[in-house]
Structure formats: structure tokens, C-alpha cells
Design goal:
single chain; mainly alpha; two-stranded antiparallel sheet; 10 helices
Length: 204
């Protein structure tokens, strides 16, 4: 699967994450690293995906958290950060990873941003063309806690406890499970078989 536009190297992406975490220390960095590893491990089994690219997209999906403790604002902060570097696909994933359903009204967070930014995101998500990198990061975002890989259901509960239950919560869970099924058919095995320590970490 070809990616148009510029991509950072692994070293550039790792450096960007380190610098971002210095600005806003938190568990989000470890979460991003596990997302990246999950993306890489699954992409390695997909003939049409680059494991290296998948790893980079996973590392950068939450890079907007560099700007501080925010809710949905981190999506557009990440988009703008990556766009400023010319990393167009990474920029898209900074937003798309939160919307497996292409409608921002399914958001579980708060739109802590100016109205013009919210409307930009509404149009962007509605008109974005998702590919398997978008879908892979959406899936892996739900497979990773800061402490390691976990079952989807554990992550669902973790997010629900922190953000509450939204009218779209069940639809989001169903869509994530659909993406899981899609990749499992594509790779011919359980995604969990590619995530070391998933069972043990899910039982903690």
C-alpha cells in the first residue's frame, strides 16, 4: 500500500516522541510505543503494508499531546504538528485514529478547541479516505495500555471508566471489533498471537 507525501524515519519519529513527552510528561508516551509495536507486528503479516511505516504511524498518532493535557484538541494539535513537518499521512492519522466511525459526533471526548477547529475536523473526518494504516492504528490504539498489550475488552472498559459512556460507545466498540475481524481474516491468525504478554497484562 503506497503512501503519498513525506514520511519521517523511525529515528525522526522516535526523537519527536521523546521531545513531545518532555513538554507534557505522561503515560501517553508508553501507550504510543505499545501502539507502534502492535501496528508493526500486525503489519508484518500483511503483504500490502510496511511494518516500518505502520510503526511510525503508531508512534506519532498521539503526538499532539505535546501541547498539554487536553481532550480532543490533541487530535488537531497532532495534525498541525505533522503537517508542519510535511508528514501528511501521519497528520491524517493524528485525527482519524479517534474516529473509526467517520462522524465526529461519535467522539467520546470534549471538543476543547475553537469552533472553527471543530468544524475543520468535522469536514476532515467526513471526507477523509481511510486506508489500512488508518484502520490499523484505530485497532492498535485499543490494544495498548501504557503497561503493555491488552484484550480489546479491557481497553474498552479502561476508556469508559475515564471518559464515561457516550451514546456512540457501543457503535464504536462494534466498529473496532469489525476492524479486528478484518485484520484477522487478512493475516490468517488471531491478532493476540502477535502481542507478547497480552494475556498476562489483561489480567492485571
Amino acid at each position: 500500500m503506497n503512501i503519498s507525501g513525506k514520511l519521517p524515519s523511525r529515528e525522526e519519529a522516535e526523537k519527536a516522541l521523546i521531545e513531545a513527552e518532555k513538554l507534557n510528561p505522561g503515560a501517553w508516551k508508553a501507550h504510543s510505543e505499545y501502539v507502534a509495536m502492535a501496528c508493526r507486528n500486525i503489519a508484518e503479516k500483511c503483504d500490502d503494508l510496511s511494518a516500518e511505516n505502520a510503526y511510525i504511524f503508531g508512534l506519532l498518532h498521539d503526538i499532539g499531546r505535546y501541547a498539554g493535557v487536553t481532550s480532543e484538541r490533541h487530535l488537531i494539535d497532532g495534525y498541525r504538528y505533522c503537517k508542519s513537518k510535511g508528514w501528511d499521512k501521519a497528520a491524517q492519522i493524528c485525527i482519524s485514529h479517534a474516529f473509526m466511525i467517520q462522524d465526529i459526533d461519535t467522539s467520546i471526548g470534549k471538543f476543547d478547541m475553537p469552533e472553527k477547529d471543530r468544524e475543520f475536523m468535522r469536514d476532515f473526518v467526513k471526507n477523509a479516505v481511510y486506508d489500512d494504516y488508518d484502520r490499523l492504528v484505530q485497532l492498535c490504539d485499543a490494544l495498548a495500555l501504557p503497561s503493555g498489550f491488552c484484550l480489546l475488552e479491557k481497553r474498552f472498559v479502561d476508556v469508559a471508566i475515564r471518559y464515561g459512556v457516550h451514546p456512540a460507545t457501543l457503535d464504536r466498540w462494534k466498529k473496532t471489533l469489525e476492524i479486528k475481524d478484518y485484520f484477522e481474516k487478512k493475516i490468517g491468525c488471531s491478532i493476540y498471537s502477535l502481542l507478547p504478554g497480552v494475556a498476562e497484562n489483561s489480567l492485571k
